[in-house]
Write a structure and sequence with these properties.
The chain has 9 helices and 17 strands. The protein is an alpha/beta fold. The protein has one domain (13-339): Metallo-beta-lactamase, Chain A. It binds zinc ion.
């Protein structure tokens, strides 16, 4: 069991990124016992979601979790997310907008009780919908928060500290494309599914910007750069309808892969030499980040941290533990950072 210490003080911002090698989960303390969980993973050999283990270990009642966000429905980001939702009675479930569509609901329902290896993530999301239905008051309709570029999840003071959560992606064009693909997969009510869903729905991944007082955090999810101008990071960077303040802390997109890299992220969404946090992805022959990715991220960052020691991206003074990286920011400055 990882020793997580005692958790943040009320006025401390804390961003904890957990990634045991396969999977990613982020827990944000936006001061004053306001907690946000983004994605979920379960470390191998364990049964409890990493975010639940973490919050339990530092003595946080999950009633203080206000948002449980699923950035996209890949298995490495959703395992255990229904556990977190189930234990967080006051949390809103936030899903990328493409999932709202009838076609996806049909797929989630069809595969909800079947082999998760066929459609990774579907049974977790089906369980989340069951939890929401059970919580819905008579006369109301069960609902999650469906979010895409432009949505503001929160814009209110928390104990006197202004907190704003902006959704940066997916773009409308990416949602349209995802819906088209989902509908192609679904042969009809009575026919069996003849194909599995696309394996790379990263274009509908939800990147978030969280402003807490004067501090800004960019969570890049698994969002990728594509060739289309209305898609992925290109769409985020070309949106001039609102001002997104530059961040000093970046959860690097897509496990540090070059596919999640865009120069514009570093030039326009991040301050110079930000602190970078990332989780590795190791499954079969796929290993992220690659050596070239580590070099690139190090060269662009003031400090770079990876959650699993195997990655070795660490720069400067950082301590490595099994799978968690934490940053703490006091009211006006980064006071300490590192792993524990
Ligand atoms: Zn991933």
């Amino acid at each position: 069991m990882t020793d997580f210490g005692s958790g943040p003080a009320a006025d401390e911002i804390e961003v904890t990124v957990m990634g045991p090698g396969y999977g990613e989960s982020i827990v944000v303390h936006a001061t004053n016992n306001f907690w946000i969980v983004v994605d979920s993973c379960i470390p191998s050999g364990e049964k409890v979601a990493a975010a639940v283990s973490y919050l339990n270990a530092i003595g946080v009642d999950l009633a203080a979790v206000r948002f449980v966000v699923s950035t996209h429905w890949h298995d490495d980001h959703v395992r255990g997310i229904s556990q977190i939702l189930n234990l967080s009675p006051n949390a809103k479930l936030v899903l990328a907008s493409a999932l709202q569509q009838k076609e996806f609901m049909q797929i989630a329902t069809a595969f909800g009780n079947t082999n998760d290896a066929v459609v990774p993530g579907a049974s977790e999301l089906a369980e989340c919908f069951r939890i929401i239905r059970a919580r819905t008051l008579p006369g109301a309709r069960p609902s999650a928060v469906f979010a895409s570029s432009g949505k503001v999840l929160w814009d209110m003071p928390v104990g006197g500290v202004q907190v704003k959560i902006d959704v940066l992606s997916p773009s409308d064009a990416d949602i349209t494309e995802a819906v088209r693909r989902f509908s192609e997969l679904w042969p009809g009510e009575r026919a069996p599914l003849n194909r599995v869903p696309p394996s790379h729905p990263n274009h509908v991944a939800m990147a978030l910007h969280i402003a807490i007082g004067e501090h800004n955090v960019l969570l890049g999810a698994d969002l990728e750069k594509t060739v289309a101008l209305d898609s992925g990071w290109e769409a985020v960077l070309s949106d001039d309808s609102r001002q997104i303040r530059k961040s000093t802390l970046y959860k690097v997109a897509h496990h540090g892969s070059i596919t999640g890299h865009h120069d514009g992220i570093w030039e326009r969404l991040l301050e110079a030499t930000p602190t970078s946090l990332l989780t590795p992805f190791r499954r079969g022959r796929v290993k992220l980040p690659k050596e070239t990715d580590k070099h690139r991220i190090r060269s662009l960052s003031g400090g770079a941290f990876i959650t699993s020691p195997v990655g070795g991206v660490c720069q400067g003074s950082c301590r490595v533990n099994r799978y968690a990286a934490c940053l703490y920011i006091s009211a006006d400055a980064l006071v300490r950072s590192g792993f524990r």
